[in-house]
Amino acid sequence: MSAPIPAPAFRYSAFISYSHRDERWARWLQKALETYRVPSHLAHPELGVASRRLSPVFRDRSDLPSATDLGAHIREALQDSANLIVICSPGACVSRWVNEEIRCFRSLGRGDRIFCLIVDGEPNASDLPGRESLECFPPALRFLDDVDGPATGPRLEPVAADARPGADGKSNARLKLIAGLLGVGFDVLKQRDLRRRNRRLVLVTAFALVLTGVVTALAIEARIARKAAEQRQKQAEDLVAFMLTDLNDRLREVQRLDILEAVDNQAMAYFSSLPLHDVTDQTLALRSKALQKIGNVRQDEGQLAAAMESYLAASELGAELLRRSPDDAEREAAYAETLNHLGNAQYFQGDRDRALESFSRAAELLARATAERPQDDWLEVLSSARTNAGRVLETRGEFETARKLYESVLATATMLASRQPGDLRRQSDLADAHDSLGKIALEQGQLAQAIAAYRDVRRIKAELSSRSPDDRDAVERLLISNGILGRTLALCGAEVEATKHVREAVGAARTLVAFDAKQADWRFWLGKYGLQLASIARSAGRLQEAAGHDGEALRVLADLVATDRTNSAWQRELASAQVESARLQLALGETVAAGQLLDAAFATLTREGEAGREDRNLRLLEAQAHLVQGQLATRRNEAAGAREHWIHAREAIANDVRIGANPNFLSAWASAHLLLGEADAARPAIDQLVAMGYYTPDFAAVLAATNLAHVVTPHDKRCGNGQSVSASAGRIH
Predict the structure, then answer these.
(1) 579 Cβ contact partners less than 8 Å away, ≥ 6 residues apart
(2) DSSP 3
(3) If you write DSSP's letter for every residue of 38-106 in order, what string do you get?
(4) Is the dihedral of CA 418, 419, 422, 424 positive or negative?
């Protein structure tokens, strides 16, 4: 029989010292310590840990005296505590009582048992002029002084766990503190915690699958006899909430959406069937959040129509909650987040007007909520809503209005990144804000500035991805940045560098799809940038290479469209791929195949127009399709038919070409005029293109056919005002 564990030498394992401003952190820390299960071989009575728990932990603010000393109650608790944990923040730094508790504990001769948890501010910021207000260490932590004297003694360098984002984080900070309390290395507890988490994830996953049957049974019972099943309804909601919130978040970390798919349909039917009356506001908020989570999973898997169903149901609940309490900032923010997701789905379905309404309403609600409580997470969603609204405005040609939105997003991203310089997500958001402004530069014909901005964005995304090589979100962000930069470089004739970046994008997309083919966005990027790679190879004369990329892009995009024909973005990208493939078939002399591809593309364009989804991007694609159709008609010796298509191409973008100076619009406009023999009408657009440094082999071929080959030369490859594409204009610092 094992010997009994001796009684602890102290009443409390730790005393938590904190400012009243950090009470939320103190409550979290007390619970985190007292619920931690200590390995039996690490329990040491002399450290105040004689059992498998670190409880009790002393946390008391209610009994602080109003006199000049700490009072007998606090002093007795400090005497009876094996360790002192100081929650460090600017509030703690200026708290008289926190400082006195540190001094009192050190006077007991246990200065080596003082541990720090940084939650806000900066350590030793008081040493830097102008940053004194950010100091998080109280004076008694920074200086070794006499018990009753001022903090002017020898300098101390306290070792602290750092719970701030971008540092240790809450989980690692908790383990560091516990390791200190137990007198063991951090790695010992970290490895043990990882093993426990892995076992827990396996159990939770198995539990979630079992719960599928439970939820189904409870949902049926609720419909048959609601009164008799009210208690079971609550149980079902609790179970579904767990699966679609906590479990959902955990599974997203490891990209495991497949486990939730089994319960999505039943959960959706269950929540949609429940009435709004006779339920609490808390229940409504829970349902709205759960429906939004379901929508996110469905959209990730490419089920846009099903995602819309979830978002609409969630938005109805969010609107009802806000109606009941219109001045509640939490409800404003929650409803706005749902509207932002809804607008995103509406945008991809081609309903640009409703999407803009959703984004604008979301931004309005979040601007009001953040004015009252400027929480970082809310500011992040506000920036997302404004960016999304800007994307819609771009399709309308309202570039200056979009620019103002992007500039406000940049200001917010800069502020958040400066607050949390070690947070990779904040740095990525900052790069995205510059990317949006680069897009506006491109729309206004500032090709050199756009490329310079895209280079810097790509550099930042590459650095962030290298820091977290296993973060697939970071891989995806770098993938997109490579694709955008490569596509824009191709407009300047930088074929080698453009190929390099687009090839990187395609390679990363293939890797992601190989990991999880259910992620629809990853398949979309594979198709989109595979198409771009095919276009660059074809224009450079590498026709067999182009055919390989082209075939893969067509297959991927066709498969996506087959899974959800409500996704307008996929339909358009497939039509664009069909137009590009028709160019390739013409180059190979396959006129029949080219005609079939163009017929399919025009069918999509017609459906989009009849559905009221027309915008400047659709009109540009229509013009490009007519240009290729005219070239096909010429191959067939159908001069009248060719002329008719080129007239259609010219008319399709006649209004759009007057707004901004997007080189793709100018090129299509000039090409239509040149093919129609209208060189004088084409000349203003050609001059603009030459001035910005535009060059593509396709455009050069049109110029050559009209005896204007001397206007641009492939060796120039410059972007505006004689500035090379590697210029530093618009650098992000």
Answers:
(1) 597, 598, 601, 621, 624, 625, 628
(2) P
(3) --GGG--GGGT--SSB---EE---TT--SSSS--HHHHHHHHTBS-EEEEESHHHHT-HHHHHHHHHHH
(4) negative
CA distance 161 to 181: 12
Range of the domain at 46: 14-184
Q: How far, CA to CA in Å, does 515 sit from each of 50, 193, 226, 253, 357?
A: 47, 26, 44, 14, 36
Task: Report CA Rg, the chain.
Answer: 31
Q: In angstroms, rounded to a whole number, what is the distance separating the alpha carbons of residues 273 and 399?
A: 43
Q: How many domains does the chain have?
A: 1
- Residues of the chain with confidence (pLDDT) below 70: 1-8, 40-52, 61-70, 145-153, 193-279, 708-733
Collapsing DSSP to helix, strand or coil, 15 comes out as strand
Cis-peptide into 56, omega within 30 deg? yes
For residue 297, report the phi and psi dihedrals to the nearest 5 degrees: -65, -45
Q: Is 119 helix (H, G, I), strand (E, B) or coil?
A: coil
Name the region of 445 (left: φ>0; alpha: ψ -120 to 50; beta: rest).
left
Q: How far is Cα 96 from Cα 111, in angstroms, rounded to an integer?
A: 19
Return the pLDDT at 258.
53
Q: How far is it, in rounded angstroms, from Cα 580 to Cα 582? A: 5
pLDDT tens digits along 435-453: 999 999 999 999 999 999 9
With a CB cutoff of 8 Å and minimum separation 6, the contacts of 377 are: none
Is-contact 693 447, C-beta < 8 A?
Answer: yes
At residue 283, the pLDDT reads 73
| Burial (0-12, 13-18, 19+ Cβ within 10 Å), 544 | exposed
> Pairing between strand 57-58 and 84-88?
unpaired
Q: What is the pLDDT of residue 146?
A: 46
For residue 97 the two structure tokens come to 């009582």
Question: Cα separation of 4 and 2, whole Å?
Answer: 6
pLDDT for the residue numbered 154: 77
- Does some domain include residue 66? yes
Q: For residue 223, is it within any domain?
A: no
* Contact assessment for residue 627 and residue 671, using Cβ atoms and an 8 Å cutoff: yes
Cα 71 versus chain centre, distance: 50
Q: State how far the Cα of 414 lies from the Cα of 270, in Å rounded to an integer.
A: 43
The stretches of 225-350 forming alpha helices (DSSP H) are: 230-244, 246-253, 258-273, 281-300, 304-324, 329-348
Q: How far apart are CA 202 and CA 207, in angstroms?
A: 9
CATH number at residue 128: 3.40.50
CB 505 within 8 A of CB 515: no
In three-state secondary structure terms, 301 is coil
Q: Residue 614: CB partners within 8 Å, gap ≥ 6?
A: 608
Residue 179 lies in a domain: yes
- On whether the CB atoms of residues 474 and 464 are closer than 8 A, the answer is yes
pLDDT given at position 597: 96
- CA angle, residues 662, 667, 671, in degrees to nearest 5: 155
Is residue 583 assigned to a domain? no
Rounded distance between C-alpha atoms, residue 257 and residue 404, angstroms = 37
3-state DSSP call for residue 114?
strand
Other residues' Cβ atoms within 10 Å of the Cβ of residue 395: 17
Cα 454 to Cα 379: distance, rounded to the nearest angstrom: 24
Query: What's the farthest any 2 CA atoms get from each other in the chain?
Result: 103
Please state, in angstroms and rounded to a whole number, the distance separating the CA atoms of residues 598 and 603: 8
* DSSP code, position 613: -
Cα distance between residue 137 and residue 99, in whole Å: 9
Counts for the chain of helices (H) and strands (E), in that order? 29, 5
* Cα 687 to Cα 693: distance, rounded to the nearest angstrom: 10
β pairing state of 84-88 and 114-118:
parallel
